[in-house]
Amino acid sequence: MGKMVLTLALIQGFSGIAISLHWTAESQNQDALMQVLQQAPLTMVLIAVVGAPPVEELLFRGLLMHSFGSLKDKRRLWAVSIISSVVFGLMHAGPSEPLNMLVYIAMGAVFTMTYVKTKDIRYSIALHFLNNFIALML
Prior knowledge:
Helix content: over 70%
Strand content: under 5%
Number of helices: 6
């Protein structure tokens, strides 16, 4: 899981550099989170850090990935992993924010790889929790 944490940190680092170099603006998703954080910090932490990771992981890795049948076939596993990651990215940043969308797709891919490697959704939930916690604190 250490490699996944490092990969996620690299993705977040790239995103921060892209924003500081004005290649892209802060994602609308992150802007909205920060606005709510300023107005209702405890509520935002509970929603973004405690509530969102299990709900999103159960939705994108649990329900969505298993909606396509058995994941024992490698081609199907690759296909549903890509679908899960892309849908995750699109739900967080749309085509109007292409670089941010790619960042969220990459994050979704890390959560997906974590789930696929461990075969335990609790690990992807924990990683998602850590990601959201750090994103709110920065």
